[in-house]
Amino acid sequence: MSQSPYIFDVTSDNFDQLVIENSHHKPVLVDFWAEWCAPCKALMPMLASITESLGGELLLAKVNCDAEALLTERFGIRSLPTVVLFKDGQPVDGFAGIQPESAIRTMLEPHVAEPQPADDSGEDVEARVAALLDAGEPEQAIALLQQTMAEDSRDPLLLLLARALVDSRQFDDVDTVLGAIEDKESHKQTIAGLRAGLDFARQTADLPAPGQLEQRLASDPNDSEAAYQLAIHQLAGQQHQAALEGLLQLMQRDRSYADNAAQRTLLQTFELLGNGHPLSISYRRKLYQLLY
Question: In sequence order, what are the beta bridge partners of 60?
Fold first, then answer.
């Protein structure tokens, strides 16, 4: 028995219920086959693939003719494989033998409705976009969002678009997207985090490359400027824990560097991550212990 809800085996006992009655709601393709029939085994995966691709607009019922002689006689099956399409309780089309997929789809076209496209404006597209961003694919995330937002520009999608623009370094458009959010109060924390991330990303444009900063720190571990700038690169690159640890160490040895820049950046990072994030909770505690 197939695990698909659209594909199932039928017998003489349940044929009328599963095929005849179902065909009043959805067309049912009935595949008459047998274990010894090699063409049947070649055809069956094709029929299953077509059925799955139609997303529930077509059902596929399989009749094992060796076990169901009554059904074979009832429908006058003379050769295998034989495929019969039922609609509104009656056989309306069919074929015998192997057929190319294109011919089968052409036969089905007048009887089978086009499957409804998935609703990409819901939680599914949000999850897909978030996964692309987490995988470091902001350009693909933007393309998917633009496709969806042609008809739907809900706040959660705008927030994801802002994050994708930050990650792809399209800084000039981020403020415009954030300005379009309707319920700014409900998304206050997320917006603040995005603005912090935008600030970090913008700062990196004027900084030496991370490799150069690492070389400076290897030569002089007390190079506060290199340590701070490396932390900014790490924040822009989503390396939050490494950045937090570096900023905390910088505070321990040079608290007043650049007018308390490390402390201010730690607080910005908590905003970026959200107050409930485990790293925010852990490093906020370490910060308070250091201060007090």
Answer: 7, 29
Mean pLDDT value of segment 80-102: 94
Q: Is 65 in the active site? A: no
Domains of the chain (ranges, CATH numbers): 7-108 (3.40.30.10), 123-186 (1.25.40), 204-291 (1.25.40.10)
The whole model's pTM is what? 0.52
Strands 90-96 and 7-9: unpaired
E strands, 226-268, are none
Residue 45 CB partners (closer than 8 Å, separation 6+): none
**Among 20, 34, 37, 48, which one carries the catalytic annotation?**
37
Any idea which of 24-28, 32-36, 132-136, 199-203 has the lowest mean pLDDT?
132-136
Confidence of residue 71 (pLDDT cuts 50, 70, 90): very high
Residues 6+ apart with CB under 8 A from 18: 8, 10, 28, 61
The residue annotated as part of the active site, out of 40, 47, 83, 165, is 40
What string of DSSP letters covers 220-234? -TT-HHHHHHHHHHH
pLDDT digits (tens, 9 = 90+) for 236-258: 887 999 999 999 999 999 999 99
